[in-house]
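Quick entry, no commentary yet.
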Amino acid sequence: MWRKCLFLLLCLFLLPKSWADMASQTAYLSKSQTLEEFLHDVPAQTFFPEATGYGEVQEKPHLVPVMKGTTQIGYVFLNSDYVNAGGYSGKPIKILIGVDNQFTIRALKLVKHSEPIVLIGIPEKKINAFIDSYLGRNYTQGNKAGVPDVITGATVTVMVINETIARSSLLFSRAVRSEQGEQTQVIAQTPDVPKTLLEYQKDAPAAGDWAQMLKEGDVAHLHLTVGEVNEAFATAGKKDAAGISESDDPNATFIDLYVAEVSIPQIGRPLLGEALYQQASKYLKEGETLILVAGKGLYSFKGSGYVRGGIFDRVKIEQDGEGFHFRDRNHRRIGDIMIGGAPKFPEIALFTVPADKNFNALKPWTLDLLAHRAVGPTKKEFIEFKLPYQLPERLLKEAPNPDYQPPKPATVKAETEKSESISSSEMTAGNQTVDAVDEEMPTPLWQRLWQAKTVQIIVLAVALLILTLVFFFQDFLAQHPKFYKKFRVIYLCFTLFWLGGYMTAQLSIVNVFAFTHALMTGFDWSYFLMDPMIFMLWAATAASALLWNRGAFCGWLCPFGALQELTNNLAKKLGVKQFKLPFKVHERMTAIKYLIFMLLFGFSLYDLGLAEKLAEIEPFKASIILKFARAWPYVEFALVLLIIGLFIERFYCRYLCPLGAALAIPAKLRLFDWLKRYPTCGNPCQKCAQECPVEAIFPEGNINANECIQCLNCQVLYHDKKRCMHLLEEIKKQQKYAARAKRDRERLAALQGEATE
């Protein structure tokens, strides 16, 4: 009863604070987070070294001119004035963007963000370096350069930055042109229409063997040695990377890379074999192209990034200044190249170029190989090598272009009609969405991120379904202790190595803060949908907490919890002595995590950034997300907790985890309690209480649902006829009754025999 009262008092304490903070937060966003405020701290010379200062701030569109004396040389605007710049935290990622009069980006300045992985974990200079890669882009000429190299561990953040820079730059240029009446439309007779077109020569002969295909250009080849790569890094000024070699032998093969366009029959049939070529061609849609990539050597062109991110980030196709990466759904593994004389390759990939890439298989293109070397725990240096490809001349022919007409002089006129401009209602300042149709980005970012992780989403959905079945059929599983024990270890390994190791899908108390602030400052589902794995885990955790308690996540889906349990199991097998605190001491210490949560939550209402820094009480970033590649104090803290966990199972979960405390509060409203107990549990039997990994069973025998992690150990004991005291007594009673019944039957039979005589 007192716990329920405490819960209600906590709600009453926090709600008025939330209401008051909601109003203050809204005022903060509308009054202080403005272009004018940031201009005080960022001089005009940041964007244009030759500038003498800023001009007068304009409200419609919201911008400030950059002046050189009395001459305007460009503009500066705030991205969040034109697009919804909300990041993974739900807070806007605010960037000042400086463009010249032709709308080419001259400089960018990150002025405010609340991204947890950047505040704590990834150095902000990495994000700044990523932002600087947009220098020189002009989005009025299209988004040809694509997304720069993604930063490991901050994929969602950098994708949001890419989206907001591209969209805000495009919308800003439209707004300026519309306001000034300078939006133009060129009236000309289909410019750049060539006189002739290239066509595929269907009756051209095929090459006879591998050597001939290389000689005639059916297959393009790039060979790099370790020494050549070292030299390339050194020439690029990346001396640290130049000094880190994959081999001591400079003549060792770094990579031997081959590429071919196998949708062409004369190339595809010899390389793939007739059966595979026919199968691949059968599913090829109109406008799609098949590209074969094979490689061997010390460097893999595939890497491992596509496993967790769905993108092959080491190779890229470029044509006519536009580039794109392949995704896992466009990939198919192949065992061997079939043509005679071809070498054996450990890596062969068949990629499908989607029709929406507007790839012209008859025109020249290049395969870009991105080579990288780790020069620190969290730092890598990159360098790019290009492998050009063009179909051999024997496979091409020229034909007249029926659409060609001699060009006429172009005329330009101003177009100021309302239909061609962006209305003021489509653009709002601050944290509001721009409802403008952007042909450069036809689908929302979160949808593209979900599409890119289709396979991973299916895997996690199956894992969650299996866990749901475990909860529903726990009585059946608990009756098969050997199978259940093995199953639990396998599931925890999946959670640790796939969910945590590959997908870095670790929930955090920071997510709770972000959700709370989103409710206070304008909730938008798109913030939380940007990471499919985290969203699915939160949905499953919320549902299971209301149905049972926090155990589904804490006991099964938390990678750090799995790491603690697996390492403790190993310690037990090695004979490490386990320590158990007296129950009264243990019970008082469990309150620590609730105090930590309330303190962090209170700080988050005052200053979200400060709360996120204090949330380093969670070792998740150091151990799971960044895999111990952090500054030594963070790694040391995580290791200390794991070492203590070798002696006290799940020490961090029991006493320090604020996320577990946060999840325990709504679990007070749980609908079901399916964990069974006998009347004798706790009096006198203490077997379950002694073996509970988190001491979630009171000496009286009842289960503390706030601390229970649903490991089902007590349910296995509940059905164990060799270890459960209640069942042992029942068996003894049954045996006693059976023996008595047997004696009675024997006595009755004897009496009947005497009567017969």
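second:
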Amino acid sequence: MDTGVYTPAAAGANGEAYARALGAWVPTTAHLVAPDGSSYTYVDAKITGSALHFVDRQQDRPVIASTGPIDVLGFVSQDSVAYTAPDATGRLTTWLLGTTTLHSTPVSKELLYGWAGGGAIWRVGPAARGSGIALYRLDVRTGAETIWFDVDGYLGPEPSQSPSFTSEGAAHTPQNSLHHNFGIIGFDASGHPVVQLGSPGDPGASATLLITSPQTVQTIVVPGANGPGHMAPESATGGHSALWMVDAGGHVAVYRGAGPLAIIANVPVPAGSKAELAGPCS
């Protein structure tokens, strides 16, 4: 891959991610595959409700049934999967499913989390100070929640601006986007989150960061560097002592923690589609 050479894989009609321990392409996205590739989850949604399935070498088992929607956040670790679903009273709750017991326990009814990985579940919420936002990490073993990343602490306070308006209301500026659009696009091999600030679709309005500990940031793509000729990754995964990323247009890049992000291949993407990482293959 470092040479820019890639080999198309016959994923089959339903292959979205690769489960390396199973040696198979599976019909789910990469964040729903166990870290070692030995199992995966998917949701079967019907008008009458939803069922969460757990699949391993033995069988495909429906393990959770809900009258409402189920949203799987991903594998917290090899031992557990996080998901959101209504409780018995209809209140949306974050749950933890043990991959050995296949039993669920509630984690939070007060706060909703958006991602899972690195032994934790993650959410975006108001920063401790100011009007900005922050990334919160909940350790599922201890129940302790800590702030891992403060957007204004990284970018500096959001400058005051004269508002501009369109026929649909207030317009979002590039600075608005950097300070207020936020998401985890994947995790490295150690479970550290890879974060996208801003909007990949707006030139000059995004940044890509690796957060290795509270308030410790490696800048992969500097703020505002996603203009023509630059990359705005939309998915990321760790493997082979590197961090691998791809954007919607099929530009594949590798980051090794030193030096610039290296674009190493460009995979053709059909019109109306986008490229995503399928996970480690070995």
